[in-house]
Specification:
about 575 residues; 8-stranded mixed beta sheet; alpha+beta
Length: about 575
Amino acid sequence: DPFPPAVQIHSVPFSGGEPVTIGEGQDYVISPDSKTIAIVNNGQVWTAPIDGSSSPRKLFQTRGRQRELNYSPDGSKLAFVSNRGDHSFIGIYCGEGNTIQWADPSFDRDLSPRWSPDGSKMVFIRRPGSGGEPGLILKASHSPWSIVVFDLDSEKTRILWKAPETLRGSYPSTQGRTNLHWAKGHIVFLSYEDGWPHLYSIPESGGISKLLTPGSYMAEYISLNHTKDRLYFAGNTGPDPYDIDRRHIVGVNVDGSDFRVHTPGTELEWTPHQTGDGLYLVYISGGPKRPPLPAVMHLSSGRKMFLGTNLVPDNFPQKYLVTPSQVIFESKDGTPVHATLFRSGEFTGERPAVVYIHGGPPRQMLLGWHYSSYYSNAYAVNQYLANRGFVVLSVNYRLGIGYGYEFHRPEDGGWRGASEYQDILAAGEWLADQEYIDHTRIGVYGGSYGGYLTAMALARDSDLFAAGVDIHGVHDRTEGRARSFVMPDQYEKSMDASYALEVAWASSPVADMDTWRSPVLVIHADDDRNVRFSQSTDLVQRLRKQGVDTETMVIVDDTHHFMMHANQLKVNEAVADFFERRMK
């Protein structure tokens, strides 16, 4: 399309009918009476009737870029975060004719505003602003954060809770970050302080935090019910030891009572919400073979109903799909690594194999259809390859989520040493040791961070990995962020700046081009907003100079996530075709 469509907000009546266009924007919040919507468009806040009966109008104009909109319980005020670069404020718009009230503006980053039930107070997260004396680059340090309460009438603040000054106590980086909520009599939040992303609560008057979700599992996609006394989340826990590689719906009261796994079993469930009458849970559910669908469960009886089953195409190949199995092996340094194995029983003899590497890297591939659209597509490709006679091993390497803090945040991971590559190498070696695998035909592929590690595998270990597909990967870790190490916009430099640059280069696939011999397909969309297209442009020139058998595919005017369905199919088909031609 020579005139690509804008990103817009639409609404549909519950009674049915055609969607109506409200206006352009990306982030939005609905008023408590469901009549009005506030939208962020180009960093400013607009408002419009939710039925689209009139065009959006700008609510106010202020500096910075606004986000995280949140109506007060009575709908009379609108809280927002105003991002000002090295700091951010919590603003409160109090209606036409009133000024914006700022919640204790400081030289910090304030975010996640949450209203008290009566609308008289607000709780939010406070993190330090940027700046200060440069610390060591290669040494991990605590990222401080605290929970602050603001009284709108007195305009006074108090620190309700401060994170432990440990690496585990750092600002969390899993889905929803702190997942802050003002619940019934309690403030609830998520912290990694005991080594797992767990939920905690504090009395709203203050006090000692209480762990609500003890155990070796994580909590994500967290919601608070209508009466604000119970939390629901997706957790990789349950009665089955394989549940660490699944997601189930878990509930717990805000005082820590009545902890319950609501959806045990071999399927996967995520994004839970309780209905307003308190009788049902609604969520998304998928299985190893059944694709994800909306589901409703009656809380008392446990009876489930799936919605939209009629929308699954009649030719959906469910009967051809395999149920992936859990595999656990050790890396060279003894780190246990989980993986999922796709192997069809329709084939005998030694088979070609492929290692799949997810991106992120804070992701976890599961024993079933994935809750992310990107990785749901990858799951489909892995199923297709298995159906075509390949054995696929999807590896959950360190830097990923689901296995605790030290696995998620290794000090020598990424550009600090690429320790996670040991897990990719171990996955390839595990496949080579299986009697049903032809060890001369082991491939590797992945996108984004998976593309980076694919390039690393081909550059460092062409003797093991016979071919690979690198989809929008990073190849030179000294670009971008690393430049600020050695050329900061200030006189001071970190003491280890020069050494950090050397480590970042050694952690880059392009540092090992001399040993790259295996053929590769490089795929990249040239409107990528996540990984620079120049990363692949640079790699292709190096591959050509090295004489590596290189194929390329450029997707014009699309993004990192292949927004056009036709482009996603094109990429999927190219991956399968490449391995068919190169390894069968």
